[in-house]
Specification:
This is Purine nucleoside phosphorylase. GO terms for molecular function: copper ion binding; hydrolase activity; S-methyl-5-thioadenosine phosphorylase activity. Belongs to the purine nucleoside phosphorylase YfiH/LACC1 family. Keywords: Hydrolase, Metal-binding, Transferase, Zinc. The chain is α+β, with helices and mostly antiparallel strands and about 270 residues long. It has one domain: CNF1/YfiH-like putative cysteine hydrolases (4-Layer Sandwich). About 25% of the residues lie in helices and about 25% in strands. The strands form three sheets. Strands 1-2-3-15-7-4 form a six-stranded mixed beta sheet. Strands 5-6-9-8-10-14 form a six-stranded mixed beta sheet. β1 (about 5-10) and β2 form a beta hairpin. The model has no long low-confidence stretch (mean pLDDT about 95).
């Protein structure tokens, strides 16, 4: 599987060809391109907590969801806190208004209900979308370094199993996020990875000067998905680095937190 750029009605987003070919689902990873926001939020800001004009954000959602083919009025979100919690989503979780507050914290969402758009946010952390075309189950996960260390993608696969999904049937797409080239860290990040994964983490960690390291979060999450039982050919990884491409993506590191947000969406048909 590959993740490729798509342009629809002026909106640039990314999609995994394997999920598109499987049918029964729509999905997409947003970029900064194709929205109506201005200033530091220009232009496709999908963050509801970043301080952008709410009417601009509403129009951005309308445009992005229309571009990927998702219904605009059946959205489910969560308060993301860098955990490994994956929440099952029911119709009661559908937001009545885009700006309604969610009463729960989770970094993953899973459902087997058609028409519910699962939404997660990112701006360096990895957005991960999962789809089982056999049992018709979808999940979305937000994998920062803490979530990566605690195994958020494996928790998502486990939650999908509650709906009858088998790992070998699941397709996964790891969207654009900070890549190893730009994810320079102190020892706390590699220590968290090795504490969780032991020597399996070492191929994804490169020591550099002054006690710092480069860490490959995309590679670790792909490895974790394989450990959870997914076939390697069922895992697509975006090569786009949010920190390398500031004209296309928001990067929390590059902007020092003054930014909008990307969103990743998956919706069963």
């Amino acid at each position: 599987m590959e993740i490729k750029d798509r342009i629809q009605n002026g909106v640039t987003y990314l999609a995994a060809d394997g999920l598109e070919a499987a049918g029964g689902v729509v999905h997409g990873f947003s970029t900064r391109l194709g929205g109506v926001s201005t200033g530091i939020y220009a232009s496709m800001d999908l963050g509801t907590t970043r301080g952008d004009d709410s009417e601009h954000v509403r129009e951005n959602y309308r445009r992005f969801l229309a571009a990927i083919g998702a219904a605009p009025d059946r959205i489910a979100m969560s308060n993301q806190v860098h955990s490994d919690v994956v929440r099952p989503v029911t119709v009661s979780d559908i937001k009545k208004d885009l700006y309604d507050q969610e009463p729960y914290e989770a970094d993953g969402l899973v459902t087997d209900i058609p028409g519910v758009a699962l939404v997660i946010f990112s701006a360096d952390c990895l957005p991960v979308l999962l789809y089982d075309p056999v049992r018709h189950v979808a999940a979305a996960a937000h994998a920062g370094w803490r979530g990566t260390a605690s195994g958020i993608v494996e928790r998502a696969v486990e939650k999908m199993a509650f709906y009858g999904s088998r790992p070998e049937d699941i397709l996964a797409a790891i969207g654009p996020g900070i890549s190893k080239c730009c994810f320079e860290t102190h020892e706390d990040v590699p220590n968290a990875m090795t504490a969780a994964l032991g020597v399996r983490a070492t191929p994804f960690i490169t020591p550099i000067q002054h006690g710092k390291f480069l860490v490959d979060l995309k590679g670790i999450n792909a490895m974790r998905l394989e450990r959870a039982g997914l076939a390697p050919e069922h895992i697509a990884v975006s090569g786009d680095c949010t920190a390398c491409q500031p004209d296309k993506y928001w990067s929390h590191r590059v902007t020092q937190g003054v930014r909008g947000s990307q969103a990743a969406v998956i919706q069963l048909l």
